[in-house]
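Customer ticket, subject: "Can you confirm the structure for Isoprenylcysteine carboxylmethyltransferase family protein?"

Message body: Hello, I'm evaluating your service for our small team and ran a test protein. I'd like someone to confirm that this is what the system normally returns, since I don't have a reference to compare against.
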Amino acid sequence: MSNRPYGHSDTRASRAPWLVKMTSPVHFALALGLGAWLQDALELPLPAPMPLAWIELAGGGIACLGLALAVSCFVLFARRRTTIMPSGHPSRLVLDGPYRFTRNPMYLALVLSYVGLCLQLGLLWAVALVPLPWLALQLYVIPFEEARLLAEFGLHYSDYCARVRRWL
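Agent reply: Thanks for trying us out. I re-ran your input and got the following:
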């Protein structure tokens, strides 16, 4: 942990790469747009394992689950008066609620909402592209956040990482 004033870390964690500065919903919106374009341009719909109505219904449920998870995270962060922005400076760790089970419930909520919305809209190509924004999270955004949190909170955050998995 640094002895420097809050928010003035010496580590590389203080400089957000452009993939981190571009908010995560933008990553998913770009994948959604590309998936919609592919579905229209290629006219090669992916085979549907069940009637479209059931896929749309399931998608709505999955999207609602993702939205509920996101709202619960926003409420926790508001109560703790800390930032939800990956490039922001956290003032405290949030370790309760869904954070007891996953270190990244907001990103899990984004994945669920994205997949649910795509299914509800019948954009199966966009569902197939979910690895693209997930990789941006996994390779750039989350490691940046973890380095920043480790620099700010040290052993307390390290212990949390040892107890709670990154995803599920």
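A couple of notes from the result: Residues 1-13 have pLDDT under 50 and may be disordered. Residues 50-163 form one domain. Feel free to reply with more questions.
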